[in-house]
Amino acid sequence: MPSQKITLDSAVLALDISPNGEHIVVSQSIDTSSKARLTLWDVKNSQLLTEIDATEYDGMPVCFVGHDQLIAYAKNFSEVCLYSVETGEYIHLNSAGVTWLAASHTHRLVVAGMATEVWDTETPKRMWLMTDYIALKVLNLKPAVADISLDGTKVAVAGINTTQALIFDLERDEIIQTLDNAPAQARWVSLSPNLRYLAVIGALSRGRFLWNLETGEQYLPDIFESDDVGTWSMCFHPNSEYLATGSLVGFISIYRLQDGEIVFSEPIHEGRVWDLAFTPDGKKIISGGDDGVVSILELGNLD
Predict the structure, then answer these.
(1) Which of 90, 180, 259, 268 sees the fewest Cβ atoms within 10 Å?
(2) Is-contact 158 144, C-beta < 8 A?
(3) Over the stretch 262-303, which tens digit does the pLDDT of each residue have?
(4) Where are the beta strands (DSSP E) in 35-170?
């Protein structure tokens, strides 16, 4: 399968692709200049467009918010910055201990760290706060991870020191679904675009979990087992019919969710695959890893 590569001088810890599929934002670990860098790239020709920020701390969670002109990232894990691609301007959101970001296709951004909250990036104001879980080091409570539906109305939260994952309805401000047998601490969570599935990776890559939200039961448990120790990252295909996973040893695998069959599995990186994302048309998968490579892989027909 044809691919493009962007080779950088430090590990790629996070990335995202714009809703129109034209840009990639890339977060690196500390490089030879002792800075962790956040950069914007053109997908078509793998050209660097701009450096958005640099910090003395390792890497930054990052995502596009709502449309192609706004990027959210966590700076030094102490605040969230909104960067306008169009104007180059920055807006700062007051959040604490930020370790995770996810965005809807509207103007809503979910932030997880000491607290789990949703911000309206147009205002910009915090519009929702999960009041029942605050991550306090003194109590050995780790930050939760959270995802938000594309329409910005539902939030999934995992890793809240219980064996449950929760789905919240933001309009009603209430829990609408509780999923059992979840990891007490988690490092990854992802809602499928059609809201049929929820996927979670346990903290320190201890187990991967998949639920069918229509039944509330774990789905394909023989494949997405709780004792898996090799999965580090994951994402759903735009059509919600496939789930891609990135491993600690460089493999990207794509599962067909109808039956759990692996339709693609190849070593793409040297070392772990930190993050990955399908392009909006589902024809490419973009990934970043320990090797400092951003891979843009043509998938063709997955079946």
Answers:
(1) 259
(2) yes
(3) 999 999 999 999 999 999 999 999 999 999 999 999 998 887
(4) 36-42, 47-55, 62-64, 70-75, 79-84, 90-93, 100-103, 108-112, 116-120, 125-129, 145-148, 154-158, 164-169
How many other CB atoms sit within 10 Å of the CB of residue 137? 10
b/e 112-136 (16+ beta carbons within 10 angstroms → b):
bbbbbbbbebeeeebebebeebbbe
Report yes or no: 223 and 255 within 8 Å, Cβ to Cβ.
Answer: yes
Q: 215, exposed or middle or buried, with CB in 10 Å at 0-12, 13-18, 19+?
A: exposed
**CA-to-CA separations, 283 to 46, 237, 252, 280, 299, in angstroms, rounded:** 17, 9, 15, 8, 5
pTM for the full model? 0.95
Tokens coding 179: 């999923």
Q: Please check whether residue 54 is in contact with residue 37, taking contact to mean a CB–CB distance below 8 angstroms.
A: yes
C-alpha distance across the termini of the chain, in Å: 14
Element (H, E) at 286: strand 284-289
3-class secondary structure, 139: helix
pLDDT digits (tens, 9 = 90+) for 141-184: 889 999 999 999 999 999 999 999 999 999 999 999 999 999 99
Q: Are 198 and 210 in contact (CB under 8 A)?
A: yes
Phi, psi of 138 (to 5 degrees): -60, -25
In whole angstroms, what is the distance from residue 216 CA to residue 111 CA? 25
Instruction: Assign 91 to helix, strand or coil.
Output: strand
Using alpha carbons only, what angle is made at residue 188 by residues 115 and 92, rounded to the nearest 5 degrees? 45
DSSP 257: T
